Amino acid sequence: MQSCATENGAVFELGPRSIRPAGNAGRATLKIVHDLGLEKSILSVSSSHPAARSRFIYSREKLHQLPSGVISIIKRQSLFSKSLLPTIIREPFVRGKQDHEDESIYNFFKRRMNEEVAEYLSDPLCRGIFAGDSRLLSLSSCFPAVYQYENQHGSIIKGAFLTKEVPDPSVMSPLAKRAKEERWSTWSLQGGLQTLSDKLHEELLQRGVNVKMTSPCTAVNFNSDGRLTVAWPNEELTIDHVMSGIPAEKLANILPEDC
Known about the structure:
Elements: E1 3-5, E2 11-13, H1 23-35, E3 42-46, H2 50-53, E4 56-59, E5 62-65, H3 70-74, H4 85-90, H5 105-112, H6 115-129, H7 139-142, H8 144-153, H9 156-162, H10 174-181, E6 184-189, H11 194-206, E7 219-222, E8 228-232, E9 235-239, H12 248-254
Antiparallel strand pairs: 1-2, 3-6, 4-5, 7-8, 8-9
Helix pairs in contact: 5-6, 8-9
């Protein structure tokens, strides 16, 4: 998260610009916001707001509005060569992969829907969420729920209707309840989403957590007593547990060769 404010008060997000409140993950994030006392900084967008209902894709040198309701799905949209309705009706009858092997997001939607959906819906979605190419991103890693819809129910649409997430009581908060009652689509914070990471950093420091910034980890070694030694330039620390948030390829470079 990185927010940049201009002299006239405009805020530009160099990372994610909004967060969805849906699901246990969304509720957990709202609980963090609540616990950090940032409720008054919330900027919410309801699902009925034009900003939530009117979404556009820039393609072929013009803006195309995406479908946002049943009528718009029935009609042919400028982004597509034909109505999406036949594609949606056909999707539950498309055979799933028998081996359940992972595949790229692009190939998944091309196989289950059509090439236009993969090109003009799934790819822009991935660029907006992950800043990545849908042809290179793993479906099971990025959209595990969609991956399971096909594996367990044979269809995205069937899976979406038949799968119901069980709310986790541990991540409930007054803010999550408010988001549900007000039907939030997305939310952000005054001053930008970096406000959240800055406040979290401040809270960790107050709790005595040692936060190392711009300190690249050079090695992680496993000791005979079951503990681990983590190395930085000119420093080592022996600890009980390590939680990694870096790409697997980068992690492999700092782990022992026989790991």
